[in-house]
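For reproducibility, we list the full input for the iron/sulfur cluster complex.
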Amino acid sequence: MALSGLDIYKHLPKTNCKKCGCATCLAFAMALAAKKTSLDKCPDITEAAKQILDSASLPPMATITIGSGTKKIDVGGETVMFRHDKTFYHPTAIAVSISDNETNIQDKIEKIKKLNFDRVGMMVGVDLIALKNDSNNVNKFASVSKELSDKTELPLILLSDNPQAIDEALKNISNKRPLIYSANSKNYEQMSDIAKKHTVPLCICGKDVEELSDLSQKITARGVKDIVLDSGAREVSKCIQDFTKIRRLALKKNFRALGFPTIGFAESVEDASAYITKYANILVTSMDKPEELLPLVTLRLNIYTDPQKPIMMEPKLYSIGTPNENSPFMVTTNFSLTFFTVSPEVENSKIPVWLLVCDAEGMSVLTAWAADKFNAEIIDSWMKKTDIASKVKHKKIIIPGYVSVMSGKLEELTGWEVLVGPKEAAGIPKYLKTVWK
Amino acid sequence: MEQALEKWQGKIYELTIGATKDEGGTRSKKVKFGGINTLPFLHFEGIVPNPPLIAVEVWDTEPTEWPDVLKNEYKDVLNNPMQWAKKCEDFGADLICLRLASTDPDTINASAADASKTIKDVLSASSLPLMIIGCGNNEKNSSIIMDVAQTAKGENCLIGMAVKENYKTFTAAAQAGGHSLIAETPIDINLEKQLNILISDLGFGSDRIVIHPTTGGIGYGFEYCYTIIERTRLAALASDKMMSQPIVTFVGQETWKIKECKADETEKPEWGSIKDRGFLWEKATASAYLQAGSDILVMNHPKAVKDIKIHIQELMKK
Ligand code: SF4
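The corresponding predicted structure, in tokenized form, follows.
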């Protein structure tokens, strides 16, 4: 939360000595508030005031980096409660957990590597591997974490509340900057020292939000800066409420102790989905089947898209299936929901189609038609731009049922035969099967 | 420690669907939903008086477009709405969502009389409260809705969809039959409010409207619908009475038409088991809409219904 010039002024020496280059302390405070100068220009500021002012200039939720190398991942750094307010920056990092009792680590790694999916040309999938110290054995934990670190580029989370096990594992892999989990009320002093010694991020697990913030303050005081938060809740209702409390206190009250990303644990698709929406920054699960992860990564992609982006598809000629010169040719607008309603129905018909998405400024068919953004001239110009005439032998256009009135004009302009398709996308499969022969 | 409470002024209308004998209906129970005065499941901040409900779809004709994995779940009842409704009641539906798909002029073009018969059949086969929706054709829906509402008179059903083009007919039908009404708009918060106002201006209680802001499946426009629901809920909590209606989402419908739930392993080996993919997708969609603020989820797969029911029970714990 940004401080005003007057708020800052209260903490300055008020001597107007001009060493900062400003005429008065107040002028310096104003310049600071406007981010036109930096605090270190004032040599006389007290240490206490410096701390207050420094922390006030920090973002309300820290961004933490886990891992090193190409697959390192940033979590946190969120600034709003609702995606329509701005945007969510760092998609919930998904970690698949492995037990250190696992006999075939290689198999497990191969399995996790496959949890990576192509979504409209973008690869989305699992981001981290979480290793659980189920064996309770210090050396085993260390050797399996070394093996994981050697065999995969995915960053790791080391799950053990035994400081010795964590310390031992980090001896080999601290350069990979894993997240260590967790510091609790009993071990936090040792865990803090370990996190500092190896410069790795540390996750704190409280027994509730209150103990968590208390531990966070103690651990911060010991010099640990990169922190991840776990309120200790495991029931879905409690988790949702704790995540919400933590996020609100950080963002709206600028409560420093909770100004860090959160971690959640889910063992079902429904719980995991709830945490992706409300408000886990890291999600750990033992689910490792593609059919379990595919909906989760797709949901995550949706929640973290930029809501400011107009709801538009790129206007162009889309091929659905592998259309050829005899395939149907359909037109619609570039409202993305229109596209997302039409394209699955076309796929359902199992008939490959040329789908021309015209630039209608992101409006749906009816709205665009009413606003004169989807008319015969516009369709004609997009048909020319995309050179559909060179791709099909027939000269037939299928237009949405709602705009049948433009048929005559469109035939006149293009010289193509206009077929009026169904009004609702749901009617497309049947329409194509019966009309297009 | 500092509290993270918001001071909401508004509250969602509480609605009841179904009428028992004493109230002139024939249902064995009624269902209540809405009534919340905070964001979904935030028990620490407000009152969450009713759990969200699950309505399960029953069709009056075999849904030919459904993938086999879903059809198989209903294979013995697909051509029998009575048995189908009974089955849904048995596996835990809170209410039945009867879809009069056969009235579509593009398919069977069943008449208002046919639709009335189906409604009577389903009412006699199951004692659950009923939601009744038409086909994809607004004109046809308008032409049969009076008969539909009349047939189910006194049962306090939830009928839909009233859209901008036909809301007058739908409102009159709901009024005459003593039903509540689903108002549907194409993911636009202003149109949503406007339609509620138009319906209320006809003298229909704004506390008897349920909003359908359009449902998008995950990966297929979900984010727009999620955000419209969140914004609607925030407006309601800020006391906008024309946005304070409960919200329904058609989760199943938007799940089972997408490629991710239809393509089998030969086509998409990297997507995993086709047997489980669809119901998992349906659960993810349902869960995310619950967090946005959906009060009724309309669903399909029995396993998804069962799991989400448990999930809702868990979310209702303080
Ligand atoms: S250097 Fe510090 S004390 Fe001197 S005028 Fe600037 S702000 Fe004030």
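DSSP finds 16 helices and 17 strands in chain A. The pocket of iron/sulfur cluster is lined by residues A 12-13, 15-20, 22, 25, 28, 42, 44 (CB under 6 Å). Both points were considered when choosing residues for closer inspection.
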